[in-house]
Design brief:
347 residues; alpha/beta; Quinone Oxidoreductase, Chain A, domain 1; Rossmann fold; 2 domains; seven-stranded mixed β-sheet; six-stranded parallel β-sheet; 26% strand
Protein backbone atom coordinates (compact mmCIF):
# COMPACT_ATOMS: atom_id res chain seq x y z
CA UNK A 1 0.00 0.00 0.00
CA UNK A 2 1.30 3.47 -0.90
CA UNK A 3 0.27 6.57 0.98
CA UNK A 4 0.92 10.25 0.56
CA UNK A 5 1.68 12.91 3.11
CA UNK A 6 2.50 16.59 3.25
CA UNK A 7 5.14 16.05 5.95
CA UNK A 8 8.53 17.24 4.71
CA UNK A 9 10.35 18.03 7.97
CA UNK A 10 10.81 16.52 11.41
CA UNK A 11 12.29 17.38 14.77
CA UNK A 12 15.61 15.72 15.53
CA UNK A 13 18.62 15.89 17.82
CA UNK A 14 21.85 16.63 15.99
CA UNK A 15 25.54 17.27 16.53
CA UNK A 16 26.04 20.65 14.89
CA UNK A 17 29.81 20.29 14.65
CA UNK A 18 32.58 17.73 15.05
CA UNK A 19 33.03 16.56 18.64
CA UNK A 20 29.96 18.41 19.85
CA UNK A 21 29.56 18.08 23.60
CA UNK A 22 25.79 18.48 23.42
CA UNK A 23 23.23 17.55 20.79
CA UNK A 24 20.77 20.27 19.80
CA UNK A 25 17.12 19.91 18.84
CA UNK A 26 16.64 21.14 15.29
CA UNK A 27 14.16 20.77 12.47
CA UNK A 28 15.49 18.87 9.46
CA UNK A 29 14.23 18.21 5.96
CA UNK A 30 13.23 14.62 5.34
CA UNK A 31 14.92 13.03 2.35
CA UNK A 32 12.54 12.33 -0.56
CA UNK A 33 10.68 9.05 -0.12
CA UNK A 34 12.18 6.58 -2.61
CA UNK A 35 10.03 4.12 -4.54
CA UNK A 36 11.49 1.38 -2.33
CA UNK A 37 11.54 3.61 0.74
CA UNK A 38 9.72 3.54 4.07
CA UNK A 39 8.82 6.36 6.42
CA UNK A 40 8.81 5.47 10.13
CA UNK A 41 7.39 7.22 13.17
CA UNK A 42 10.11 6.52 15.74
CA UNK A 43 9.01 4.85 18.96
CA UNK A 44 12.47 4.35 20.44
CA UNK A 45 16.11 4.20 19.40
CA UNK A 46 19.17 2.64 20.97
CA UNK A 47 22.24 4.73 21.76
CA UNK A 48 25.29 2.95 20.36
CA UNK A 49 29.01 3.59 20.67
CA UNK A 50 29.13 4.09 16.90
CA UNK A 51 26.88 7.14 17.33
CA UNK A 52 29.52 8.67 19.59
CA UNK A 53 32.24 7.88 17.04
CA UNK A 54 30.23 9.70 14.36
CA UNK A 55 29.75 12.71 16.63
CA UNK A 56 33.46 12.83 17.42
CA UNK A 57 34.39 12.63 13.75
CA UNK A 58 36.20 9.29 14.15
CA UNK A 59 34.53 7.99 10.98
CA UNK A 60 35.75 10.89 8.86
CA UNK A 61 33.61 11.73 5.83
CA UNK A 62 30.87 9.32 6.92
CA UNK A 63 29.65 12.03 9.30
CA UNK A 64 27.85 14.96 7.67
CA UNK A 65 27.02 17.87 9.96
CA UNK A 66 24.54 18.58 11.30
CA UNK A 67 24.84 14.88 12.11
CA UNK A 68 21.64 13.08 13.17
CA UNK A 69 22.63 9.70 14.58
CA UNK A 70 20.58 6.72 15.70
CA UNK A 71 20.62 3.32 13.99
CA UNK A 72 18.83 0.97 16.38
CA UNK A 73 15.34 2.17 15.53
CA UNK A 74 11.94 0.70 16.36
CA UNK A 75 8.84 2.48 15.14
CA UNK A 76 5.67 2.36 13.07
CA UNK A 77 5.38 2.52 9.29
CA UNK A 78 3.60 5.74 8.30
CA UNK A 79 4.29 5.86 4.56
CA UNK A 80 5.79 3.65 1.84
CA UNK A 81 7.11 4.00 -1.68
CA UNK A 82 5.17 2.50 -4.57
CA UNK A 83 7.46 -0.54 -4.97
CA UNK A 84 7.46 -1.66 -1.34
CA UNK A 85 6.15 -5.16 -0.67
CA UNK A 86 5.74 -7.17 2.51
CA UNK A 87 5.12 -4.21 4.83
CA UNK A 88 1.98 -2.35 5.87
CA UNK A 89 1.22 1.13 7.16
CA UNK A 90 0.81 0.89 10.93
CA UNK A 91 3.16 -2.10 11.24
CA UNK A 92 5.88 -2.11 13.92
CA UNK A 93 9.31 -2.39 12.33
CA UNK A 94 13.00 -2.01 13.09
CA UNK A 95 16.03 -0.60 11.28
CA UNK A 96 19.67 -1.32 12.13
CA UNK A 97 23.07 -0.03 11.01
CA UNK A 98 22.51 -0.74 7.32
CA UNK A 99 19.81 0.93 5.24
CA UNK A 100 20.51 -0.13 1.63
CA UNK A 101 22.64 -2.28 -0.67
CA UNK A 102 22.74 -3.00 -4.41
CA UNK A 103 21.16 -6.50 -4.10
CA UNK A 104 22.93 -7.65 -7.27
CA UNK A 105 26.66 -7.93 -6.56
CA UNK A 106 28.50 -11.12 -5.60
CA UNK A 107 28.09 -10.47 -1.89
CA UNK A 108 24.43 -9.50 -1.96
CA UNK A 109 23.51 -12.58 -3.97
CA UNK A 110 25.35 -14.70 -1.37
CA UNK A 111 23.35 -13.11 1.48
CA UNK A 112 26.33 -11.06 2.64
CA UNK A 113 24.83 -7.62 2.07
CA UNK A 114 27.03 -6.14 4.80
CA UNK A 115 29.99 -6.66 2.43
CA UNK A 116 28.37 -4.92 -0.54
CA UNK A 117 30.52 -2.16 -2.01
CA UNK A 118 27.43 0.04 -2.26
CA UNK A 119 26.07 -0.63 1.21
CA UNK A 120 24.61 2.43 2.88
CA UNK A 121 24.32 3.19 6.56
CA UNK A 122 21.24 4.46 8.35
CA UNK A 123 22.85 7.56 9.80
CA UNK A 124 25.99 8.13 7.70
CA UNK A 125 26.86 10.17 4.61
CA UNK A 126 23.93 12.53 5.01
CA UNK A 127 21.32 9.93 5.95
CA UNK A 128 19.32 11.02 9.00
CA UNK A 129 18.94 8.47 11.74
CA UNK A 130 16.58 7.68 14.58
CA UNK A 131 17.34 10.51 17.01
CA UNK A 132 14.23 12.07 15.53
CA UNK A 133 10.45 12.01 15.54
CA UNK A 134 10.28 10.63 11.98
CA UNK A 135 12.90 9.00 9.76
CA UNK A 136 13.03 7.56 6.25
CA UNK A 137 14.85 4.46 5.05
CA UNK A 138 15.45 4.24 1.30
CA UNK A 139 15.47 0.44 0.99
CA UNK A 140 12.53 -1.47 2.47
CA UNK A 141 14.52 -4.71 2.53
CA UNK A 142 16.41 -3.28 5.49
CA UNK A 143 13.19 -2.51 7.37
CA UNK A 144 12.30 -5.53 9.46
CA UNK A 145 8.95 -6.50 11.03
CA UNK A 146 9.30 -6.88 14.79
CA UNK A 147 7.69 -10.04 16.22
CA UNK A 148 4.82 -9.33 18.60
CA UNK A 149 6.55 -11.18 21.45
CA UNK A 150 9.39 -8.64 21.61
CA UNK A 151 9.49 -5.47 23.69
CA UNK A 152 10.38 -2.42 21.56
CA UNK A 153 12.98 -0.97 23.91
CA UNK A 154 14.64 -4.31 24.63
CA UNK A 155 14.90 -5.29 20.97
CA UNK A 156 16.11 -1.90 19.67
CA UNK A 157 19.78 -2.45 20.71
CA UNK A 158 19.67 -5.90 19.12
CA UNK A 159 19.28 -4.28 15.68
CA UNK A 160 22.96 -3.25 15.66
CA UNK A 161 24.74 -4.34 18.82
CA UNK A 162 22.88 -7.62 19.02
CA UNK A 163 23.41 -8.46 15.36
CA UNK A 164 27.10 -7.61 15.72
CA UNK A 165 27.59 -10.40 18.28
CA UNK A 166 24.94 -12.75 16.86
CA UNK A 167 26.66 -13.16 13.48
CA UNK A 168 30.09 -14.44 14.63
CA UNK A 169 28.56 -16.63 17.34
CA UNK A 170 26.23 -18.20 14.76
CA UNK A 171 28.86 -18.59 12.03
CA UNK A 172 31.99 -19.46 14.00
CA UNK A 173 30.79 -21.58 16.94
CA UNK A 174 28.78 -24.74 17.50
CA UNK A 175 26.68 -26.03 20.42
CA UNK A 176 28.86 -27.37 23.20
CA UNK A 177 31.79 -25.04 22.57
CA UNK A 178 33.41 -23.32 25.52
CA UNK A 179 33.21 -19.64 24.72
CA UNK A 180 34.90 -16.66 26.32
CA UNK A 181 33.29 -13.23 26.15
CA UNK A 182 35.92 -10.51 26.61
CA UNK A 183 34.38 -7.17 27.54
CA UNK A 184 31.17 -7.11 29.57
CA UNK A 185 29.56 -3.84 28.50
CA UNK A 186 26.65 -3.24 26.13
CA UNK A 187 27.82 -5.76 23.51
CA UNK A 188 29.21 -8.29 25.96
CA UNK A 189 26.03 -8.80 27.95
CA UNK A 190 24.08 -9.54 24.75
CA UNK A 191 26.79 -11.94 23.60
CA UNK A 192 26.51 -13.87 26.88
CA UNK A 193 22.75 -14.23 26.41
CA UNK A 194 23.11 -15.51 22.84
CA UNK A 195 26.01 -17.86 23.56
CA UNK A 196 24.12 -19.41 26.47
CA UNK A 197 20.97 -19.84 24.35
CA UNK A 198 23.07 -21.50 21.61
CA UNK A 199 23.98 -24.24 24.09
CA UNK A 200 27.51 -23.12 24.89
CA UNK A 201 29.47 -23.00 28.13
CA UNK A 202 30.13 -19.28 28.59
CA UNK A 203 33.11 -17.79 30.42
CA UNK A 204 32.91 -14.04 31.05
CA UNK A 205 36.34 -12.38 30.92
CA UNK A 206 37.01 -9.04 32.59
CA UNK A 207 39.80 -7.03 34.22
CA UNK A 208 38.14 -7.26 37.65
CA UNK A 209 35.33 -9.14 39.35
CA UNK A 210 33.10 -6.03 39.59
CA UNK A 211 30.76 -7.37 36.89
CA UNK A 212 30.81 -11.00 38.00
CA UNK A 213 27.28 -11.06 39.44
CA UNK A 214 25.87 -9.36 36.33
CA UNK A 215 27.63 -11.80 34.00
CA UNK A 216 26.34 -14.82 35.89
CA UNK A 217 22.81 -13.41 35.95
CA UNK A 218 22.91 -13.04 32.15
CA UNK A 219 23.92 -16.67 31.67
CA UNK A 220 27.69 -16.98 32.10
CA UNK A 221 28.73 -20.25 33.72
CA UNK A 222 32.19 -19.06 34.71
CA UNK A 223 34.16 -15.86 35.29
CA UNK A 224 37.82 -15.12 34.55
CA UNK A 225 39.74 -12.09 35.83
CA UNK A 226 42.40 -11.64 33.14
CA UNK A 227 44.61 -9.42 35.31
CA UNK A 228 45.19 -12.41 37.60
CA UNK A 229 48.20 -14.43 36.45
CA UNK A 230 46.98 -17.36 38.51
CA UNK A 231 43.53 -17.41 36.90
CA UNK A 232 44.97 -16.96 33.40
CA UNK A 233 47.41 -19.84 33.90
CA UNK A 234 44.64 -22.10 35.14
CA UNK A 235 42.42 -21.23 32.15
CA UNK A 236 45.17 -21.66 29.52
CA UNK A 237 44.15 -23.83 26.58
CA UNK A 238 40.53 -24.26 27.65
CA UNK A 239 38.45 -22.10 25.28
CA UNK A 240 37.22 -22.93 21.78
CA UNK A 241 36.28 -19.36 20.92
CA UNK A 242 36.80 -15.88 22.34
CA UNK A 243 34.58 -12.98 21.26
CA UNK A 244 36.24 -9.62 21.87
CA UNK A 245 33.59 -6.95 22.40
CA UNK A 246 35.90 -4.30 23.84
CA UNK A 247 35.91 -0.95 22.05
CA UNK A 248 38.84 1.09 23.30
CA UNK A 249 41.67 3.34 22.17
CA UNK A 250 43.77 2.24 25.13
CA UNK A 251 46.55 -0.29 24.81
CA UNK A 252 45.44 -3.79 25.77
CA UNK A 253 47.70 -6.85 25.69
CA UNK A 254 45.43 -8.87 23.42
CA UNK A 255 48.29 -11.25 22.65
CA UNK A 256 47.91 -12.91 26.04
CA UNK A 257 44.36 -14.05 25.29
CA UNK A 258 45.48 -16.37 22.49
CA UNK A 259 46.97 -18.55 25.22
CA UNK A 260 43.44 -19.26 26.48
CA UNK A 261 42.50 -21.00 23.24
CA UNK A 262 42.48 -24.72 22.59
CA UNK A 263 44.14 -25.98 19.40
CA UNK A 264 42.23 -24.66 16.36
CA UNK A 265 40.48 -22.15 18.61
CA UNK A 266 39.46 -18.74 17.33
CA UNK A 267 39.55 -15.20 18.70
CA UNK A 268 37.11 -12.88 16.92
CA UNK A 269 37.07 -9.08 17.20
CA UNK A 270 33.86 -7.10 16.88
CA UNK A 271 34.92 -4.10 18.97
CA UNK A 272 37.12 -1.26 17.74
CA UNK A 273 40.60 -1.79 19.21
CA UNK A 274 44.11 -0.45 18.51
CA UNK A 275 46.55 -2.31 16.33
CA UNK A 276 48.48 -5.06 18.10
CA UNK A 277 51.07 -7.66 17.20
CA UNK A 278 50.06 -11.26 16.51
CA UNK A 279 52.61 -13.98 17.27
CA UNK A 280 51.93 -16.17 14.25
CA UNK A 281 54.94 -18.35 15.06
CA UNK A 282 53.48 -19.46 18.40
CA UNK A 283 49.95 -19.60 16.98
CA UNK A 284 51.16 -21.96 14.28
CA UNK A 285 51.87 -24.70 16.81
CA UNK A 286 48.21 -24.78 17.92
CA UNK A 287 46.69 -23.64 14.62
CA UNK A 288 44.65 -20.94 16.36
CA UNK A 289 42.88 -18.23 14.37
CA UNK A 290 42.21 -14.49 14.56
CA UNK A 291 39.10 -13.19 12.80
CA UNK A 292 36.73 -10.21 12.66
CA UNK A 293 33.03 -9.79 12.03
CA UNK A 294 30.82 -6.98 10.75
CA UNK A 295 27.12 -6.70 11.73
CA UNK A 296 25.25 -9.19 9.53
CA UNK A 297 23.07 -9.80 6.52
CA UNK A 298 19.35 -9.40 5.92
CA UNK A 299 18.97 -13.12 6.55
CA UNK A 300 20.99 -12.86 9.77
CA UNK A 301 18.71 -10.09 11.03
CA UNK A 302 15.53 -12.04 10.32
CA UNK A 303 16.92 -15.18 11.95
CA UNK A 304 18.09 -13.22 15.00
CA UNK A 305 14.70 -11.59 15.51
CA UNK A 306 12.96 -14.97 15.26
CA UNK A 307 15.47 -16.47 17.70
CA UNK A 308 14.97 -13.62 20.17
CA UNK A 309 11.20 -14.05 20.00
CA UNK A 310 11.40 -17.82 20.48
CA UNK A 311 13.90 -17.64 23.35
CA UNK A 312 12.60 -14.43 24.94
CA UNK A 313 15.93 -12.62 24.57
CA UNK A 314 16.28 -8.86 24.74
CA UNK A 315 18.92 -6.37 25.78
CA UNK A 316 19.18 -5.12 29.34
CA UNK A 317 18.33 -1.46 28.89
CA UNK A 318 18.04 1.90 30.59
CA UNK A 319 15.27 4.03 29.11
CA UNK A 320 15.67 7.79 28.70
CA UNK A 321 13.29 10.28 27.02
CA UNK A 322 14.71 11.48 23.71
CA UNK A 323 14.47 15.05 25.03
CA UNK A 324 17.04 13.99 27.68
CA UNK A 325 19.42 12.51 25.12
CA UNK A 326 22.39 14.51 26.41
CA UNK A 327 22.03 12.89 29.83
CA UNK A 328 22.24 9.43 28.25
CA UNK A 329 25.16 10.55 26.07
CA UNK A 330 27.04 11.83 29.13
CA UNK A 331 26.56 8.46 30.84
CA UNK A 332 27.76 6.61 27.75
CA UNK A 333 30.87 8.79 27.64
CA UNK A 334 31.67 8.60 31.34
CA UNK A 335 31.63 4.86 31.92
CA UNK A 336 31.27 1.48 30.30
CA UNK A 337 27.77 0.36 31.20
CA UNK A 338 26.72 -3.26 31.40
CA UNK A 339 23.46 -2.31 29.66
CA UNK A 340 22.29 -0.36 26.61
CA UNK A 341 20.75 3.09 26.64
CA UNK A 342 17.46 3.38 24.77
CA UNK A 343 15.89 6.74 23.88
CA UNK A 344 12.10 6.85 23.96
CA UNK A 345 10.58 9.37 21.57
CA UNK A 346 8.77 12.18 23.40
CA UNK A 347 8.95 14.85 20.67
Amino acid sequence: MTTTTTTTTTKAYAALEVNAKKLEQIEIDLLPLADEGVEIKVECCGLCGSDEHLIKGDYGEYAVFPQVCGHEVVGTVTQMGKNVKGLEVGQRVGVGWQSASCHSCEWCTKSNEQLCGKVKCTCCEGNRGGFADVMRCEDSQFVFPIPNELDSCEIAPMLCGGQTVWTPLKEQTKPGDKIGILGLGGLGHMAIKFAKAFGNEVIAISSSDSKKDMALEHGATGFLVHTSDEEMEKAAGTLDFILVTIATSETVEFEKFFGLLRPRGTMCFVGMVPKFMIDTFTMGFTMTNCTTSNTGSIRDMKEMLEFCAKNKIGATVKKTPLSKINDALDELRSKQSAFRHVLVNDL
